[in-house]
Amino acid sequence: MRYDLVIFDNDGVLVDSEPISNRHLAAYLTELGHPTSYEDSIRDYMGSAMHRIHDLVLERTGRRLPDDFDDVFHARVFAAFERELKAVAGVTGVLEKLTADGVPYCVASSGSHERIRVGHRATGLDRWFEDERIFSSQDVGRGKPAPDLFLHAAERMGVAPGRCVVVEDSPLGVQAAVAAGMDVCGFTAMTPAAKLEGATQLFSDMGELVDLLV
């Protein structure tokens, strides 16, 4: 393969969590007096770290979210993950191919370490991702669209940014990867291609990904 490291986003790329988490986020924000539809949540928050939710709500309303917002939200989402979450169709085949070919890979997610691990345990993806392959926005000062997380993952994996490719499905993630000087395969299963402007290549089915990496 032409890359020395494949960096996967998590939500929407490895695990089919975006519908679940954005449904619960929209409901919780609405419950707190910030009317938010599912579509609003996808548009404004998909692919972002938790601090972005706090920042946008404060910027738009002048009101801070409750101190326990993150804990309550995660409790609801994690419970739903245990009931509903599935791996993205075809992703285990990609991981099998990368492993067979000896191509290093990792995950770099805006989500917390706990969120990543809960999702991986619920879907069986934990067998593919040891701790040293997992990177979270918690590890850096700024989440996506800043490049910090992807640069941190590349450094820890010992690969130069220009030899990395990122697999992303959110505009914020694509922006972060481009800012990091990395190629990007934009996954359009949930996100319109036009919103992933800047991606090196686009694909809509995980079965297509391996061919884009060679």
Please, could you describe this protein's structure?
With 214 residues, the chain is α/β, with parallel strands linked by helices. 45% of the residues lie in helices and 12% in strands. It contains nine helices and six strands; from the N terminus they run E-H-H-H-H-H-E-H-E-H-E-H-E-E-H. Helix 1 (18-31) packs across helix 2, helix 1 (18-31) packs antiparallel against helix 4 and helix 4 (69-84) packs parallel to helix 6. The radius of gyration is 16 Å and the shape is globular. The chain starts with a strand and ends with a helix. The mean pLDDT is 95.
Q: How much is the radius of gyration in Å?
A: 16 Å
Instruction: Give a short account of the largest sheet.
Output: 6 strands, parallel
Sequence stretches where pLDDT stays below 50 over 5 or more residues: none
Ends apart, CA distance between termini: 4 Å
Strand order of the largest sheet: 3-2-1-4-5-6
How would you state the average pLDDT, rounded?
95
Shape designation: globular
Strand/helix succession: EHHHHHEHEHEHEEH
**Structure classification:** alpha/beta
Give the helix tally: 9
Number of strands: 6
Helical residue percent? Answer: 40-55%
Strand content: 5-15%
List its traits:
alpha/beta, about 45% helix, six-stranded parallel beta sheet
Quick structural overview:
The protein is an alpha/beta fold. The protein has helices at 18-31, 38-45, 50-61, 69-84, 91-101, 113-123, 148-157, 171-179, 209-213, and strands spanning 5-8, 105-109, 134-136, 164-168, 183-187, 201-203. It contains nine helices and six strands; from the N terminus they run E-H-H-H-H-H-E-H-E-H-E-H-E-E-H.
